[in-house]
Hints:
Elements lengths: L4 H24 L3 H23 L2 H18 L9 H19 L16 H14 L3 H12 L4 H8 L3 H33 L1
Helix pairs in contact: 1-2, 2-3, 2-4, 3-4, 4-7, 5-8, 6-8, 7-8
Amino acid sequence: MPKTPREYDERKKTLMKEDTIKLVKRAIKGNMDAYGKLIAEYQIYLYKTAFLYVKNEADSLDAVQECVIKGMLGIEKLREPRYFKTWITRILLNCIWQEKKTVPTISLEEYVEKGCENYLIEEKVDLYDAIDSLKDQYKTVIILFYFQELKIKEIAQVLDIPEGSVKANLYRAKKQLSKCLTVDTVEKKEVKRHAK
């Protein structure tokens, strides 16, 4: 019996994982109700991941819907139930990448309220623009690591690359982001200085 709040939380997480694994096993055997419960459990995670990538509610929902359908059709191919989250994330990313090849991207500026002068929003837009400017391999690791808080090992499984490659891509992505955001900040200061 857990005695401290931390032990209680750990026990609760373990029970949740066990319940999820049982659902996955039932879904693999063809139980669509179990698959539906799994999707309900991960729907917010999937939507947030898609939205961070495409920055559009409709496209995010389309990607999640396509992911859910492809997952339902291929769930019996999942060999290890404990990797369901990794597996469904990979399907989602493939749906996004496939759609991205056929649809031209729209800049993030279209999603920012017009006339809004809030500096915090400006910082976020700069960050998202900088992330959007990265190569897909760098953009993906940044989103999965910082926004979805996946571990290096999980990202390696999702992308089917070695952990060392994930670490290298994270390092290069952070370096490029830092350079991009520093240059952007310097340019804005120059504009403000000349405007005075």
